Amino acid sequence: MSNKVHLGHQARKRFGQNFLNDDAIIGRIVAAISPDNDHTMVEIGPGLGAITEPVAERIDRLNVVELDKDLVERLQSHPFLSSKLAIHQGDALKFDFSQLIEPGKTMKVFGNLPYNISTPLMFHLFEYAEHIANMHFMLQKEVVLRLSAAPGNKAYGRLSVMAQYHCQVIPVLEVPPGCFVPPPKVDSAVVRLVPHQTNPHPCDNLAKLHHVVSTAFNMRRKTLRNNLKKLFSDQDFEELSIDASLRPEQISVAQYVALANRLESR
Fold first, then answer.
1. 153: annotated binding-site residue?
2. Would you say the pTM of this structure is higher than 0.85?
3. Residue 134 marked as a ligand binder
4. Is 21 labelled a binding residue?
5. What SS3 string covers 153-220?
6. Residue 8 annotated as part of some ligand binding site
7. Start and end of every Ribosomal RNA adenine methylase transferase N-terminal domain (predicted)?
8. How many C-beta atoms surround the C-beta of residue 49 within 10 A?
9. Is 112 assigned to a binding site?
10. Is-contact 209 165, C-beta < 8 A?
11. Would you give the distance in Å from CA 126 to the centre of its chain?
C-alpha cells in the first residue's frame, strides 16, 4: 500500500473525501476503465490522483472536474500530471459535460464519487448518455446494489429504473473500507454503466417517466393503483396489461416506460 497519496492533505468531511490507497485495487479499476486516446477521458473528483496518475500514464489528455480548490492547486503543480490535465474547477452536479465533447469521440467517465452526491450526479450524467461510451464509478456498495437490482428485489427502486432505462448496469468489484484513507464506515463497490446505443424501451418524454417512477416509489408499501390513482385509471392498467394491485418494486422498466408513454399520449 502506498501512503504517499494523502501527505499534506486532510480529507474534508464536507466533500465526503475518502482517498483510495490500495495499489492492487487501483490496478483493477484502471484496467476496467481501459483508458485510451480514442475516447474523451473524464474523471470526476480526482482527489489526490490515485486513479488519475495511472490513467494519465496511458493517454495524452485527461479532463478532470474537481470542486476542492486545494486539490486543484495540487494537480496544477503536479510534476507529471499538470501537462496532461485539462482541469475544470467546479461542482460536477452543475457542470455542462457537453463542453467536453470532441468531434467523432464519445466519453469514458470515471470517478470515486462522494456518497452524498452520487445519485444526483448520475441523474445529471444520464442527460448526456448519448455522448458517453461508458462510466465507471466507485460507490457505496448499497448504491451499486440499487443500481443493478431486478424487479421484485428489495433494493429495486427509482434509481434502478432510471439507471437501467439509460444504461446496462454491471457490478465490477467490491472494495473494502481498508483500501481507503480514512477508511469509510461502509463497503464500496465499482460499477460499470454502459449507455444503450439503441434504447430497448424508448420513452417519448423523460420528464413523464421521472414523474411516474418517483410518484410510484413515493410510498413503496402501497399498490400501484393507490400511488398512481391521480395519473391512471384501472382501464389504463388493464389496457397496458399491468396488474394495478402490485407494488412499485414489482414491475419492470419496460412497464414503467409504457405507463409514461400512456401519460404522454393524452
1. no
2. yes
3. no
4. no
5. CCCCCHHHHHHHHHEEEEEEEEECHHHEECCCCCCEEEEEEEECCCCCCCCCCHHHHHHHHHHHHCCC
6. no
7. 25-197
8. 22
9. yes
10. yes
11. 8
